[in-house]
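Consider the following assembly input.
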Amino acid sequence: MGTAEEHPKANSWEPRIVAFFCNWCTYTAADLAGVSRLRHAPNARIIRVMCSGRVDPQFILDAFSKGADGVLIGGCHPGDCHYMEGNYKALRRVQLLKRMLKQMNIEEHRFRIEWISASEGERVRTVMNEMTEHVRKLGPLGLPKKFQEWDKEMEILERTVNGKEESVHA
Amino acid sequence: MHDKPKVAFYWCASCGGCEESVVDLAENILDVLAAVDIAMWPVAMDFKKKDIEAMEHGSILVSLVNGAIRTSEQEEMAKLMRKKSKLIIAYGSCAHTGGIPGLANQFKREEILQYIFEESPSTINPQHTRPEVNYGTNGSSVTLPVFFNVVRTLDQVVDVDYYLPGCPPTPKLLKQALDVLLSGNLPVKGTVLAPDIALCDECPKKDTKPSDLKFTEFKRPHWTTIDSKICLLAQGIICMGPATRGGCEGVCISGNMPCTGCFGPTSRVKDQGAKILSALASQVEAKDEKAIDETLATIPDPVGTFYRYGLPSSILRRKNF
């Protein structure tokens, strides 16, 4: 996955949102939004998971570290989980992860969880549009590029050390 | 060559506890010394960098390097040891996952220098003196290593062959590792030389862990009377056991202290902090947002707790500046 900056139209940055949607509710709602021909921001890459409780916090961190500017989780309303408890587990993880991301200086509007039932196609549109606008205001998160920048400080020494070593063994 | 295989020890950003653990081999250290020559060991023996530079590339069988990489000197030495050694072992938490020094990845370099040289309660520095990389006086000049912006694990700087986890690794694991390496029967490159299963599996209190923990609050060990026979998680104390590799044989837990995660994750886990966060949060009893937040608020410092030894090797690596 390349970064937004590598995109041919580098100047027209668009928010990149990774959306984890539960198979039973939110994914079906997104499908409904599609067949209802609702227009909404095209910025989310949807990943279908069987349950919002399947979303490991590692997936969220991975998405950010690989270039996502925002992460959205969609699950069933409380009490409606196909697996009884999955969405509660998701909510608890999200609440703690939000605090942790704040400590790591990742803005709170970059990460959101929403309950959207299979019949709420309209809600998918609203949430996607809102989230896209929030993230657009924040600008790119750009972690892949930051990792590269952080590691530039190593390249400088690499050159000087290797240069010295070669002369010792010349 | 009739020489015995050469072994080297080196330390980077670390506390010295890893060196201590080598000495903790006790009488076993005699067997080790009988089998190998020590090529370098700054804490105990007088070898200089130039001695190592003069050696042939790859002439050291194995170098055990402890400590994270924070300065240009540490990076340079790590690279030198890499060239001269057939095998590099990241020894201890700091080299393996970043360790306690890695917690500094929550701060900018400038924030750290400002606190240390100006703001800390024990600092008197009216002239705002700061260390300089180059300093010249009376025609001579001295240089100091560069203090990097980021704390790194050893494998973020040089190619690492094996890892010995722990803060510090136990003498038993070190002995096993040396035996394996000297036998020539090498494990797959990249192996962490400890069991690849969570600590709970070898925990002496394992049988008392309930299937659902139903947390209503998280207690801090120093404010809590701990029942020595019962799983610490069942008592509401954060124990990193479920997200931490075993191999220490539960030394902390046997001393009635929770695991803080120094052995790092198992091979199936990429981010130890995210995993323990998941394990703890999902077992909170509350179902509505407010009550969930109240329970979780009893964890005052998620990053410092979940990444105590592993921030540099975590997915995010460092606070987003």
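Chain B has eleven helices and nine strands. Ask yourself how this observation constrains the way the partners meet.
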